[in-house]
Amino acid sequence: MWGGRFSASPAEIMEEINASIGFDKRLAPQDIRASKAHAAMLADAGIIDAADAKAIIKGLDDVAAEIEGGKLQFSRALEDVHMNVESRLKEVIGTPAGRLHTARSRNDQVATDFKLYIRDRLDALDEALAVLQFAFVRKAEAHAGTIMPGFTHLQPAQPVTFGHHLLAYVEMLGRDRGRLADARARLNECPLGSAALAGTSFPIDRQATAKALGFDKPTDNSLDGVSDRDFVLETLAAASICAVHLSRFAEEVVLWSTPQFGFIKLSDKFTTGSSIMPQKRNPDAAELTRAKVGRIAGAFQSLLIVMKGLPLAYSKDMQEDKEVAFDALDSLGLAVAATAGMVDDMQPQADTMLAAAGSGYSTATDLADWLVRVLKMPFRDAHHVTGRIVAAAEAEKLPLDKLSLAAMQAVEPRISADVFSVLSPENSVASRVSHGGTAPQNVAKMAAAWRKRLEKT
Ligand code: ARG
């Protein structure tokens, strides 16, 4: 492509480090789409003949079909997807192919292609996340009143409902979708026509190409147009946060499905056995989902470091943006889909959860609240009295609601039998009706509200 000034071929190792076709061939559909828009615009602006543009566009469609059919042999000597496509176009249509690269450079070409690609992936990801939210909502609806222990410090804290716990993830995923949507909105400006870095002397119509490719507008600064990779960084940052959320749920699936917890069962569809230990049922999909955040957050770090300190405008360093982003988006897509599968698959073990919710003195706060409400004790005093009652129950190895009234009265004589009405996990969760609280009626309402929102989109 630049034979004019060169007389020798690159060193073998130069070709190897320089080539990106091994991975950027993924951008072929976007590259061809952008080239078709560019060619049409060049003709409309009178920069090339309509007949040439027609030949180029038809030829690009043929090349696209070849690539889709796996028939095009990519060449490493041609470096990247852009030159592979153009070179094949030349073979297919001859001379007019040489006019396609008028008023553009690979620098604005790659920025445009990659934006189109990221945009497609963001759209697919948004849909997949909505599917996952729906899976959580369905389970939450079915388990609005299923009681489990809520934890802080992974120590039993207060009883909560399983539906409430699941809806917490629906909230997180809602914010994730918001962040990805923000990234999409901000990236939607078209760099095509920025050319190498300075713009072009040809009378191109950047509004037209931007519009044809579904962008809101052309980018306003040609230097920024070719050197911006914020759109990848922002996508990877949002993807990392989303992967963190998935990893937290995955960790809970791993814990909950142990015999020690026994809160959920996963079917054969989402577990694997061991080649040596016949009793095993391992939650591999959850473990791998927990792990994927490593490569996703790693991709974000990787590109952040590549971009740090890069002078304007384009530098070849930026070619390193693609592999990590591809891997991160693939990994996130897998993790989201696997999580949706696990949410559907998991069977909550209501009896085990309820029994666990009643252990660990998790209704101690309810006892303290009763002392405040009925005996008008200051909360700090009530906390102290409750602590002594818990200690008494612990000494007798009894749960709170099985401790005798006499034993409680030994600590605080004014306690009456009415106290037992607040000591069960059922009463505890039923009382948590504050906005955003865990009461079954709240959960049913929130799940219904989410269902409505999700059905709309
Ligand atoms: N393969 C290159 C990349 O991904 C395309 C841009 C090349 N531009 C250049 N001036 N060599 O970044």
TrEMBL record:
Residues 361-430 form the Argininosuccinate lyase C-terminal domain. Its EC number is 4.3.2.1. GO terms for cellular component: cytosol. Pfam families: ASL_C2 (PF14698), Lyase_1 (PF00206). Gene3D superfamilies: Fumarase/aspartase (C-terminal domain) (1.10.40.30), Fumarase/aspartase (Central domain) (1.20.200.10), Fumarase/aspartase (N-terminal domain) (1.10.275.10). NCBIfam families: argH. This is Argininosuccinate lyase. It comes from Hyphomicrobium album. The lineage of its organism: Bacteria, Pseudomonadati, Pseudomonadota, Alphaproteobacteria, Hyphomicrobiales. The gene is argH.
